[in-house]
């Protein structure tokens, strides 16, 4: 009987040691460093307050002016598809986008949102994009990246990142961004 007790005690003791080893191994897992999409030292945010009615008026015109055609490309299409050689900020101001005054803290929070994640976007928008929010990432005053965001339908266009940005666009990421750049707006 003593031998059975000894064997049982040895099994229980060794299993407790194994579970402690498993716990220790779990603690050694280090959280993956999030790499930002852009190696920037400054982030500018531009916003356009433009109604659906005003946009519909432009779209319903039989013949648009060159300025309206450029605006349509900027507001709903993938323009620019590369980092433009000319000053992209002048284009935004020409089309009545307004520049936000971001603090260093806000810029850091935005950089954290625009970074690699382990999770990937798996839902896709069913509406047409209306890119009212545009982020310009700069390094030594030179534009190195552009991110266009439609908070309404969850569409994005990111240009200039050396990393794969195709998984960006979770609703939690949009919520974080919107709280940073539009803190007084209601949740959509």
Quick overview of this protein structure:
By secondary structure, this protein is α+β, with helices and mostly antiparallel strands.
Strand content: 15-25%
Helix content: 25-40%
**DSSP summary, beta strand count:** 5
Average pLDDT confidence is 80
H and E string: HEHHHEHEEEH
Strands of the widest sheet, in order across it, are 2-1-3-4-5
Annotation field: number of helices: 6
What's the Cα radius of gyration? 25 Å
Low-confidence stretches: 1-31
Largest sheet: 5 strands, antiparallel
Walk me through the structure:
The chain is α+β, with helices and mostly antiparallel strands. Helix content is 39%, strand content 15%. The protein has helices at 2-27, 52-60, 66-76, 88-94, 104-113, 171-181; strands at 42-47, 98-99, 133-139, 142-150, 155-159. It has a 5-stranded antiparallel sheet with strand order 2-1-3-4-5, with helices on both faces. Helix 5 (104-113) runs antiparallel to helix 6 (171-181). The model is unreliable at 1-31 (pLDDT under 50).
Descriptors:
alpha+beta; disordered N terminus; 5 strands; single chain; 5-stranded antiparallel beta sheet; 6 helices; 188 residues
Helices and strands in order, then pairings?
Layout: H1 2-27, E1 42-47, H2 52-60, H3 66-76, H4 88-94, E2 98-99, H5 104-113, E3 133-139, E4 142-150, E5 155-159, H6 171-181
Antiparallel strand pairs: 1-2, 1-3, 3-4, 4-5
